[in-house]
Design goal:
Oligomer: single chain
GO molecular function: lyase activity
CATH class of the largest domain: Mainly Alpha
Radius of gyration: 28 Å
Distance between the termini: 57 Å
CATH superfamily of the largest domain: Chondroitin AC/alginate lyase
Organism: Brevundimonas lenta
Strand content: 25-35%
Largest sheet: 12 strands, antiparallel
CATH topology of the largest domain: Glycosyltransferase
Protein name: Alginate lyase
Main location: periplasm
Helix content: 25-40%
Structural class: alpha+beta
Keywords: Lyase, Periplasm, Signal
Length: about 750
């Protein structure tokens, strides 16, 4: 859902007089007198620039017109500040959301247009809140461990404070002393006290909820000229730096700007980080907040854009797959990052977003576009390290062909707190503008009140987070770490390889703690070959166990099955359920094969392109075609198909496969080309300390990928089989041979 008013008053101009001393102790004297009510989040000069911009910068004037239309509509409807009663998506919840958008919008419009009616509207609404808020206790609805007062969870109260404080700052100097005192005390101080004193443990968490809370309280501190509130926000309720906004920057971001909960929650958490940082920069530029930790907040903006495909964010962990870089939080981040860096690549992101902010940063974006400064954003292969020190795994992005070509994602990150999924060594694949190998994301209908009040569904725990819902190995029908995210948080994944070269990109990682007594290694490569129309993905998953086990390796694929390259028994009249726990209870079995050692294949069609997945294993396996949706009486789950490769009774296992995009189907012209795979077979050979995956092409040529157990660069490896020898030094090597083996 788009919320165009939500992102409007977020930034400030770069160099203004500081409000607080650099160290910002609680006892610091404000530079501005406490009776000064002029705006502190956006300078008078910046407001004048926006007022004088007129229609010279179309993106900015379009944003101004959009905001003005929405605020004018709110004014015609009249001030409505209801007693809270509803969950997310309910009438009162949505009204309070509309109100904080309208407050922010009215404040900006007053400063830009000079029309007093906007300031008066914001004043009248805030006086209504000043009457209501002191009467409120805990919200009457919801199951949140920390209930809000205006909303069912304190998180939403924090969001209200972040945006309402911006609107209030813009109109505060228009108020009488009495009205200002009433609003100061009964709205903003009370809400800041509720969030940071009455809920101190919540405020001091290292978590996105606390980020919103610290941002709201800190911005309120600037607006009210209260150094103690600002310092509480920056350094925690004990004012010792063990909590608060700065500690959150330290703990939640890696040196590469990767956010602990994953790209989807990075999108959400980005807004309070950059909004409050912008307020800090405005009032205390000597802190150098955007240079802090080598510019990690700017890196976070670029990182979340990199972790997208065709404008949609890679949906790992709890995520809604339809969320993209045009979300309000990333619009905010891109504008503020551009204003700080003048990086012309960010202008192309803003072009794709199609909007900007009603702020100095938004004006900078709009001006840069008019002046022709835009450059393409360089979507590229990269690894985003995870953890505060960058040693807690990584998210790998292997790209070929730019933004809409191929993208192979390998998820080797840490757990991701309570929003993390049990999916270490998971992978996804995008091609031709589509998600081909997919991730379910979260089981949630955001703000749809009929679906659990818009919150997470029970199926998020029973299905979406479970390992079998992902493209990674399941051992003995259990999820990784026994399905306990707190246990998962204690263990990291170890990256082994990340190399990008012409024609071959490769990544690998290992984890020894996801299952007791089982070590898992996965190698994924994106490879080009002259005989193939598009790059192919090679996948090798190894498990070394201490005892025989049941291994399941799922593959979530998107498209219409064309050919099933294996014999199987189909469930035509009944749909058996695959299991009774750990997500298996939500899977219907549509077809399954007998165990076999032969190479098998599956071909499907997606948006005019064919995909053939050819797979084998080191021991007999079954192939099962399944679909999600079983044991779902409320129809909460999407019906999505999967292939599961099952091996039973082995301690050690290797699963290998190749995914080949090929051909084209034009339904309008009724033409088909290249529907037959150009790969004839895939085999795997094991040596003493390495193995080789061999892809045989239809032309008779072979493409082989050798991968060593020890990836040290100086180690030599040899694998021999069927009269052929593969020798190399280092962690991996590629071998291209003609049909005669040369």
């Amino acid at each position: 859902m788009k919320r165009p008013l939500l992102t409007l008053l977020i930034a400030a101009s770069c160099a203004q007089a500081p409000l607080l001393l650099a160290s910002a102790p609680a006892s610091a004297q404000a530079v501005r007198p406490v009776d000064d009510a002029s705006p502190v989040l956006v300078s008078a000069e910046a407001w004048r620039d926006m007022a004088e911009a007129g229609d010279r910068y179309p993106m900015f004037s379009e944003e101004r017109a959009r905001i003005q239309a929405e605020v004018d509509a709110a004014m015609r409807a009249g001030v409505d500040v209801p007693v809270p009663r509803d969950l997310g998506g309910g009438a009162t919840h949505e009204q309070h959301k509309r109100n904080y958008k309208a407050l922010a919008g009215a404040g900006a419009l007053y400063r830009i247009t000079g029309e007093r009616r906007y300031a008066d509207f914001a004043r009248d609404m805030l006086l209504e809140y000043a009457e209501l808020y002191p009467t409120l206790g805990a919200h009457p609805a919801g199951r949140s461990s920390v209930k809000g007062r205006l909303f069912w969870q304190a998180l939403n109260d924090s969001v209200w404070l972040v945006y309402a404080s911006q609107g209030y700052d813009a109109i505060r100097d228009t108020l009488s002393a009495e009205d200002r005192r009433t609003i100061d005390e009964n709205v903003f101080r009370r809400m800041a006290r509720f969030l940071s004193e009455e809920n101190a443990p919540y405020f001091d968490r290292i978590h996105n909820h606390a980020t919103w809370a610290t941002a709201g309280v800190g911005m309120t501190g600037y607006v009210l000229r209260d150094p103690e509130l600002v310092d509480r926000a920056l350094r925690g309720t004990a004012h010792d730096g063990k909590a608060g906004f700065m500690r959150q920057i330290d703990e939640l971001f890696s040196p590469d700007g990767y956010y602990a909960e994953g790209p989807y929650y990075q999108r959400y958490a980005l807004a309070p980080f950059v909004i409050f940082a912008r307020a800090i920069q405005q009032n205390e530029p000597e802190r150098g907040i955007f240079a802090y930790r080598d510019g990690v907040l700017i890196k976070a903006v670029e990182g979340v854009v990199q972790a997208s495909y065709e404008g949609l964010i890679v949906p790992v962990n709890d995520a809604l797959p339809e969320k993209g870089i045009d979300s309000e939080e990333i619009v905010t981040g891109v504008a503020i990052a551009y204003a700080q860096t003048n990086d012309p690549r960010l202008l192309s992101v803003a072009q794709r977003q199609g909007r900007t902010l009603l702020s100095p940063d938004g004006l900078a974006i709009a001006r840069g576009l008019v002046e022709g400064q835009v450059q393409p954003f360089d979507f590229r292969s990269m690894q985003l390290r995870d953890g505060p020190s960058g040693d807690s795994g990584n998210l790998v992005l292997l790209r070929q062909g730019g933004e809409t070509g191929q993208l192979l994602v390998m998820k080797n990150t840490q757990q991701g707190q309570g929003h993390g999924h049990f999916d270490r060594l998971n992978w996804l694949f995008y091609d031709n503008g589509n998600a081909v190998i997919t991730d379910y994301g979260a089981a949630r209908f955001l703000n749809v009140e009929a679906k659990n009040g818009g919150g997470y569904l029970d199926e998020n725990d029973s299905w979406a987070q479970q390992t079998v819902a992902h493209n990674t190995l399941v051992v003995n029908g259990q999820s990784q770490f026994g399905g306990d995210w707190r246990v998962g948080e204690e263990h990291t994944t170890t990256p082994l390889l990340f190399q990008v070269a012409d024609g071959l990109q490769i990544a690998s990682a290992r984890i020894d703690t996801a299952y007791a007594g089982v070590s898992m290694v996965r190698i994924l490569a994106l490879i080009e070959h002259p005989d193939l129309a598009y790059p192919i993905a090679i996948d090798l998953m190894r498990a070394d166990g201490s005892a025989p086990a049941l291994y399941d390796l799922p593959l979530r694929f998107n498209g219409q099955i064309i050919t099933q390259g294996f014999e199987a028994r189909h469930a035509l009249t009944e749909r058996p359920v695959l299991g009774d726990r750990a997500g298996y209870q939500h899977l219907w079995v549509d077809a399954q094969s007998d165990p076999g050692v032969e190479t098998r294949s599956l071909t499907w069609l997606l948006d005019g392109r064919f995909y053939t997945y050819r797979f084998g294993a080191s021991a007999p396996t079954r192939a099962l075609l399944v679909e999600s949706g079983a044991n779902d009486p409320n129809f909460n789950l999407r019906r999505e198909q999967m292939l599961i490769r099952r091996m039973d009774g082995q301690a050690d296992a290797s699963f290998y496969a190749v995914l080949e995009p090929h051909g084209a189907y034009d339904s309008r012209a009724e033409t088909v080309t290249g529907s037959t795979s150009r790969i004839r077979d895939i085999t795997r050979v094991r040596g003493d300390d390495a193995e080789v995956v061999i892809v045989t092409l239809a032309s008779g040529k072979t493409l082989a990928l050798g991968v060593a157990d020890d990836v040290s660069p100086g180690r030599s490896h040899t694998v021999r089989a069927d009269g052929q020898t593969w020798q190399w030094t280092g962690g991996y090597a590629r071998f291209d041979r003609d049909g005669d083996g040369k």
